[in-house]
Amino acid sequence: LSRFLPWVAFLRGEGRKPQDLISRAMHRLEVPGIIPLCEGNSVAKWIKFRDASSLGQSPSVLSKLPGLRASALAQNTGTVLTFKLSRFGCGPAALCATALVVQRSRKGARKQRPLVCSRAKKAEESRTGIDLDPPAGTRDFFPEDMRLQRWLYSRFYEVAALYGFEEYDAPVLENEELYKRKAGEEITEQMYNFKDKEGNAVTLRPEMTPSLARMVLQLMRAETGAIAAVLPLKWFAVPQCWRFETTQRGRKREHYQWNMDIIGVPSIFAEVELLSAVVTFFEKVGITSQDVGLKVNSRKVLGAVLKKAGVPDESFASACVVIDKLDKIGAEAVQKELADKVGLSADVSDRIVKATGAKTLDEFAALAGVGDSEEVKELRMLFDLAADYGFADWLQFDASVVRGLAYYTGVVFEGFDKAGVLRAICGGGRYDKLLQLYGSKKEVPCVGFGFGDCVLVELLKEKKVMPELPAKVDYVVAGYKLDMMGKAMSVARSLRLAGKSVDVYPEAAKKVKKAFKYADRVGANRIAFVAPDEWENGLVRIKDLRGFTAETSDDQKQADVPLTDLANVDSYFPGSSVNAMALSIADAACMRNARPC
Q1: Is the sign of the CA dihedral 4, 7, 12, 18 positive or negative?
Q2: Gap between the Cα atoms of 534 and 542, Å rounded
């Protein structure tokens, strides 16, 4: 706005037309992808610009316009961007606009939620004294956002069920000490921590693994250290996590994270099973090995290199935390930190950094001088098993991947965008020693991974595989007049008892067209009219709105169904696609709970 509105105000002061104001202002800002004004109506309700870039890049064009915000409706107008003008109390000298931005998806234009002009919103906030935005780095979830979240969660639950995992959960508020495992970890500096009213040091959990460790320890017998449960434990969760860090694309201060962990399996088979689950998930949401890869390394191999160089075991975890910064701060800075913070010699630091640039496991082993070690053989086995499993094309060795958390002890892996647009998509690895930090008398083999929801959504957008998730309901029930509303509610109850989702039209439907418009707006598959004539004969008239083609006769689309047989309503519409695609409330519930439906 600081760049956009003064220019508009200047032109407005010269008596220019509103469409000229926007056009000149956009040219002044040299917005990429926009070429001269092609048309505008006489009353300046809208103007259009020819878009020289692809429609898929329209959001990036929008981001270059500080004074424009996406409006409620996206219109599929070919290669034209339409900007609708309106005033939002922004002052007599400033003209604000909302933009109708075309965004092409695989199935057409997507509706976008309106974002109020920032100055108007500030004015409203000033009047009420309430900041209408959520805290920095957090999100509101409007219904359309929740539909996407539930769709994503259903894939998490589905994959977890396919691999035989059970769900668990823990409080979002944890004891602060649980996360202070090792000095120097970045995560300890990012906690939302405070003292509660009893003086306890607590924090919003920044990650789930320590909570999992705490729960597993509750199952451990104090005398022997044995776990009083059938091993292996295969648990999953989708917790909300909090970290006070710099927000960027795909990374916020709160996010939901899909975690899957296996406890009690010391062999490489556990890692292979989890990597297979990761690949299965990607395939479920339309991502291929051409889009995403999985970088794999082993801290055991790196440990062998450091040990051969004479580095003490107590310096290993600290060295891994530093090496994990290689992509962020560069080789020279990593070498300096290895010398200053870990105490490694310049020669050892240089050898480690050079080895992390190896393209294959064999090359790394040769550079590091650990070609015949057991650690290298174990990692080779993982790649061989992945080939047998059928997902070897997703994996690649990368010696620079060590993961930043100090508790990892063996194989580590990280999902990455092959286009290089997004940062790490998922990550995980083996952490056999974590439970010992919390009091276990012996090592407990553990391995797991985590997926953040924010970066997953960005990945789906980037690869153009975002699902179309319009609002849906099985039935709208409309009473013909006010004294039929109670009877309409009775019909709604009968349909719900039959497992159908039902929305009752909230007014008398004498104007049938309005009821049909309402049914279309809420995404109803069928509409039931409760009218006096049919009711007296024990019937309700139902029309199928989406299950047939346009050529199908109205007689086939419509049926008078006995009130006593509403449980079998689908049988009155043979051939309707609604019968096949309808997802009952019970089916949706069992999907969320990862139960076979």
Answers
A1: negative
A2: 11
Of residues 198 and 79, more confidence is placed in: 198
Question: What number is the average pLDDT over the span 101-114?
Answer: 37
Task: Encode pLDDT of 533-565 as tens digits.
Answer: 999 999 999 999 999 998 999 899 999 999 999
- Token reading at 112: 């976008």
**Which ranges in 171-298 belong to alpha helices (H)?**
209-218, 269-284
Residue 369's Cβ-side half-sphere holds a number of Cα atoms within 13 Å equal to 8
Region 30-55 average pLDDT: 37
Query: Could you give the percent of the chain with pLDDT greater than 90?
Result: 51
Cα 534 versus chain centre, distance:
48
State the burial class of residue 49 (Cβ atoms within 10 Å of its Cβ: 0-12, 13-18, 19+).
Answer: buried
Instruction: Return the bridge partners of 104, or none.
Output: 109
Cβ neighbours for 59, distance < 8 A, ≥ 6 positions apart: 101, 103
pLDDT of residue 118: 57
- Looking from the CA of 535 toward its CB, the CA atoms found within 13 Å total 17
CA–CA gap between residue 168 and residue 132 (Å, rounded) = 34
Q: Which residue has the tokens 């439970």?
A: 435
398 vs 400: CA distance, rounded Å: 5
Q: Contact 546/582 with Cβ under 8 angstroms?
A: no
Structure tokens at 556: 């086939």
What's the one-letter identity of residue 175?
A: N
| HEC readout, 512-537 | HHHHHHHHHHCCEEEEEEECHHHHHC
Asked if 475 and 495 count as a contact pair (C-beta separation under 8 A), the reply is yes
Residue 137 near residue 252, CB atoms below 8 Å: yes
| Residue 153 parent element (H or E) | helix 143-162
Beta bridge partner(s), residue 69: 98
Please answer whether residues 20 and 10 qualify as being in contact, where contact means their C-beta atoms are separated by less than 8 angstroms: no
Residue 479: pLDDT band by 50, 70, 90 thresholds? very high
First to last CA, the chain: 52
CA distance 335 to 329: 10
Least confident of 73-77, 182-186, 443-447: 73-77
User: From the CB of residue 550, how many other CB atoms can be counted at a distance below 10 Å?
Assistant: 4
For residue 204, the model assigns a pLDDT of 96
**pTM across the whole model:** 0.74
Tokens (6 digits) for 267:
């062999």
- What separation in angstroms does the CA of 138 have from each of 251, 413, 468? 10, 27, 24
Report whether 95 contacts 117 (CB < 8 A).
no
Take residue 26 and report the two structure tokens written for it.
């956009």
pLDDT of residue 197: 95
pLDDT value at residue 115:
46
